[in-house]
Amino acid sequence: MSAQAASEPKPAPTLRLQAALQLLAQAGQSLPGDAPQGSLRWLQAVIDGLCDLSSRDALTGLSNRRQFELAIAREIDRVARAGEPALVLMVDIDHFKRVNDTHGHAAGDEVIKAVGQALQDCVRPMDTVARFGGEEFAIILPNCPPAFGQTVAERIRLKVQRRPVPVSSGAEVAVTISIGGAFAPQWVRSSAPLWIERADQQLYRAKSEGRNRACLEQPTVSLVSAEEKSLLFGTSQFQDIE
Amino acid sequence: MTSSPSNASARRARIMAVTSGKGGVGKTFVAANLAAALTRRGERVLVLDADLGLANLDVVLNLYPKITLHDVFTGKAELNDAILPAPGGFSVLLAGSGLVEYSRLTAEVRDQLLGIIDKLAPRFDRILLDTGAGISDVVLFAVSLADDVMVVATPEPTSLTDAYATIKVLATQQQRRMIKLAVNQISRSGEGRAIRAQLQQVVDRYVSNGTDTPLKLELVGEIPTDPSVREAVQRRQLLLETIPGCPAATAIGVIADKLAE
Predict the structure, then answer these.
(1) Domain-wise residue ranges, chain A
(2) Partner A contacted by B151 (CB < 8 A)
(3) Residue A132, Cβ neighbours under 10 Å: how many?
(4) I want to staple A192 with a disulfide (CB 3.0 to 4.6 A). Which of A72, B199, B219, B232 is the partner?
């Protein structure tokens, strides 16, 4: 078999790019016009475009589940090493089925898009907003101190509540969200599923307490401040304590 | 399978987790030699690689186990076959590198660890849990099963910071009120005492502050920097067997006496 294969002439190396180019065109991604087709620079642009496509949610343009898994794994490693605080929020649109049933699925899609945009609008560039599935979103907020968690979650909740979504039928759909949040275990090598599970439990609590609210797990503060660190070594400072 | 509540009155091993924030502070070295010292004092001791494959117990003890916890977890071997005799006369239970996949806490890992400790506890006087560097939720879970926790630290700033972070996590997440401290690689007598006092002051101010039950750090020993340690480690032998009278070996003996009290 291998001897036969070796004796046959090698086929010219061609890449099957048609499907890839179709995908990029459909997503509205343009390739550099000045780079000749098949050149290294052009191929790199194709690859970059595909990477971008495969990390985004098609409907909302937010990070998709795959990109979210990457981001949260990175974050949990960072928190374990540096002990910095990080918050994950699980967000779910309230009574979404009602939107679909009353206004149709197209309107449902528009609502999902609008909520995704609202979430993106009220976080920092370093935060990751992802569509987790269906009408559920997840937000990773690195370096979010426990004292700010509730404020951030409330801001997001109010932003959505104050922005009714105009749908193509001409109607305006009032939308609210429920939010559940949990901080990463500081200094602890943990796993993303455990962290998400804790945030999910809070989301469940927000739903059962009447929806349109944000519930955060009470954080156990294990942060070591610069002040504490300096006290560990500054022997001279110890005389001042008592 | 697991022991029924009726044998709860039977003798059970006292379980001590040996942990540290930072790696490379001699935690496994201390655990292994402490096990040997306790064995000499007549205790039946087992050291368990509680970081499931990330601890270095096999390296320190120069063991090449054929059967490990990994085989027990996967049902390929019985627990008894995985318990090895170590050079100092104590027993060890190694995780095996295949267990790295279990280094994240799942319900299955939780149950497996619980079951194993339940089976071991009646057969030993003391179980030392060697936890590997840093804190994982597997380590936190293992530590939550322990009666005592001993943090090993060196006077180095990075070690102290990480030890303090570990202590804080244990206090805030597990409501520990007593943590033992062993200071390794001290360069002058009394350095361990000074470090304990420093840590205790920061703990009082930032960890115990406002709680009814303050966390107490107990210094169980200070081990001097000793060239014999390096020699024993490089020969991959127990210090207590190779160079028994050296200052570091004597210091570890003092810790064993204190624990056996």
Answers:
(1) 65-221
(2) no
(3) 20
(4) A72
Spatial separation of the C-alpha atoms in residues A65 and A68, rounded to whole Å: 5
Q: Which residues of B touch A187 (CB under 8 A)?
A: 21, 134-135, 165-166, 169
Check CB contact under 8 Å for B135 and A235.
Answer: no
Nearest to B135 among A188, A225, A229 (CB): A188
Q: Please report residues of A whose CB lies closer than 8 A to that of B23.
A: none
* B178 at interface of A, judged by CB pairs closer than 8 A: no
CATH architecture of the domain covering B13-260: 3-Layer(aba) Sandwich (3.40)
Mean pLDDT of chain B: 86
Which residues of chain B are under the pLDDT cut of 70? Answer: 1-10, 51-55, 97-104, 133
**Catalytic residue ranges of A:** 135
Q: How high is the pLDDT of residue A236?
A: 40
Q: Is the pLDDT of residue A4 over 80?
A: no
d(CA A89, CA A185): 14
Q: Which of B108, B137, B204 to mutate to test the interface with A (most CBs of A within 10 A)?
A: B137
What size, in residues, is chain B? 261
Beta carbons of B134 and A187 less than 8 Å apart: yes
> What is the pTM for the complete model shown?
0.68
CATH of domain A65-221: 3.30.70.270
Where are chain B's structural domains?
Answer: 13-260
